[in-house]
């Protein structure tokens, strides 16, 4: 049976691992899938082949094909590594998750099972917004909770765990007289976007916060490359919203 409860100190390791997987592995995979659908990026090996042909680097079609195959393997391998690097750098930049108890405390909710209560299989966090929130251009009244870091262990997905975590959060919000729950997701998070829509959340498209996200990456060269990559892949951000019924 599923247990949903507040975070406890001993959950740190397993909660961190699940969140890390969701952000680094799932997110990078989504980013890679977007990049290989991006015309500018997939055409590069073909452009290289043409360039080398005009420079007279190869003389037979067989040599040209070998160069093209090698360039494709190298280029798609590079894109895969680069998306992984972006995901892992994001995780490294989220130092709040290294001490969940201190930084999120009771606002961090975990899912475990009766069989293995010490083993976290799902996570969700909320924070009360201090800003004046807007949705689709309208100013929102009342308390707003911002939800983030929803993740479910890969072996336990599609069993209703995220649904149960979100329901639990909505119940807490109702008890605390919260008017709405909001959160954002980006285009590489396809599963999450589909899940949120099924959970009855409305959404609006926002421009991806390139500048803010880039600050999570080390040197200015890294930040420059990551921003370029996100721009080429046309990453978008989505703001999700649900009114909590009194
Ligand atoms: C998104 C995520 C949390 C969903 O967790 P989950 O426990 O598998 O979701 P549930 O089993 O509760 O699914 C609830 C609904 O969402 C749908 N859903 C879940 N994953 C889906 C997917 N990959 N594609 C389409 N729909 C999906 C389910 O079909 C289900 O719909 P139903 O109620 O009509 O049956 C999980 O895939 C995950 O951890 N992803 C990586 C982390 C992430 O991206 N987090 C979001 C941060 S913004």
TrEMBL record:
Q: Where is the signal peptide?
A: none
Annotated Gene Ontology MF terms?
Answer: N-acetyltransferase activity
Q: Which sequence ranges are marked TM in the entry? A: 41-58, 64-82
Superkingdom per UniProt: Eukaryota
Task: Cite the PROSITE patterns for this sequence.
Answer: GNAT
Q: What's in the keyword line of the UniProt record?
A: Membrane, Transferase, Transmembrane, Transmembrane helix
**Protein name, please?**
N-acetyltransferase domain-containing protein
């Amino acid at each position: 049976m599923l247990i949903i409860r507040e975070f406890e100190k001993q959950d740190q390791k397993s909660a961190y691992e699940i969140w890390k997987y969701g952000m680094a592995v799932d997110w990078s995979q989504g980013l890679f899938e977007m990049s290989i659908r991006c015309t500018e990026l997939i055409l590069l090996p073909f452009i290289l082949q043409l360039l080398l042909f005009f420079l007279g680097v190869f003389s037979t079609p067989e040599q040209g094909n070998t160069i093209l195959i090698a360039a494709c393997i190298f280029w798609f391998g590079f894109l895969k590594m680069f998306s992984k690097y972006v995901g892992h750098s994001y995780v490294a930049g989220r130092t709040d998750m290294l001490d969940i108890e201190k930084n999120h405390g009771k606002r961090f909710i975990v899912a475990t099972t009766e069989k293995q209560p010490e083993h976290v299989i799902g996570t969700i966090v909320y924070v009360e917004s201090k800003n004046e929130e807007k949705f689709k251009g309208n100013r929102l009244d009342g308390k707003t909770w911002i939800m983030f870091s929803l993740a479910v262990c890969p072996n336990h997905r599609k069993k209703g765990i995220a649904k149960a975590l979100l329901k639990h959060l909505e119940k807490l919000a109702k008890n605390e007289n919260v008017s709405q729950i909001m959160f954002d997701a980006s285009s590489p998070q396809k599963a999450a976007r589909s899940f949120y829509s099924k959970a009855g959340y409305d959404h609006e498209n926002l421009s991806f916060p390139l500048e803010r996200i880039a600050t999570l990456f080390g040197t200015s060269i890294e930040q420059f490359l990551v921003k370029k990559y996100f721009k080429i892949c046309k990453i978008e951000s989505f703001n999700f919203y649900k009114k909590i019924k009194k």
